[in-house]
Amino acid sequence: MRAVFRAAGRLVRLLGYLVVGLWRVRRLERMDERERLETVRAYLAGAAAILGVSLQLRVDPRVDTLADGGSLWLPNHISWLDIPLLGGIRPGTVFLAKSEIRHWPVIGRLARLAGTEFIERGRGSEAAALAVADGLSRGRQMVVFAEGTTSEGDGVRRFHARLLGPAVESTRPVVPIALRYRDREGNPTKVPAFVGKESLWPSLWRVLSACGLEARIDLLEPIVPEVGDTRTDIARRAENAVSTRIAATD
Prior knowledge:
The chain is an alpha/beta fold. The protein has a single domain, classed as Glycerol-3-phosphate (1)-acyltransferase (3-Layer(aba) Sandwich). The chain contains nine helices and seven strands, in the order ααβαβαβαβαβαβαβα. Helix 5 links the parallel strand 3 and strand 4. Helix 1 packs antiparallel against helix 2 and helix 1 crosses helix 8. The relative contact order is 0.18.
C-alpha cells in the first residue's frame, strides 16, 4: 500500500511539473542559447528527481579537459529513464528522436529548443549520421544508444558502429558511458528496465513505486580517434570500456 501512495504522490508532482514545462517553453524562446540549454538541463534533472531517482555521477578527469567542441556519448541503454538522467548532466546534451516527437505537446517544443535532432521516418541511418555530424559541428554532446535497443542492465549488447562515422571522420572525442541502476540496498535492480514489448505506463508506474532507486553513471576515459582508426575499432573499444565498468561490483 505504501508503494501505491508513493507512486500516486509522485505522479501528481510529475503532472504538475509537466504543466510548469508549458510555462518554461514560452520563456525558453526568449532566452539566449546558453541560458536555454542550461534551463533544459535543469528541467530534465528535475524530472528525474521527481520520479524518485537519485544520481551517483562519476566523471573521468580527462572528460573535463576536452577542448570546447562536440563529442559523441555512447552509453548502454536500459530504459526511457536514461534520457532525463543523461540529459540532466550537462547543458547541450542532444538526442536523436523520431520526427513525430517534434509535434508532441510540451515535450516536442522542449526537445526542439534543446537542439534535438529529428529524423524523418524512412530516412534511416544516413539521416541519423547527418544529424550526428550536425550536432558535433555545433559543439553538442551527441548521445547515441549504439546497442540499438534496451537491455535489463546486467550486461552490454553489441555496439553498432554505423553512427560513429561522423566522430571518427572529424576526430571528435567519443565518451563511453556506463549506466546501471541500484535499489536502496545498493544491489542491481531491473525495476527501470524497459524491454521487449512492454508499454510505457507499467514501466513508469514501477519506477514511481520504487523506494531508494539510484542511477550510477560513469563518464569513462574519452577515446579520441586517430588516423587509421575505423568506426568499428572505436565501437569495440567503447563497448569493452562500458562492459568492463558494468561488470564491476560498485
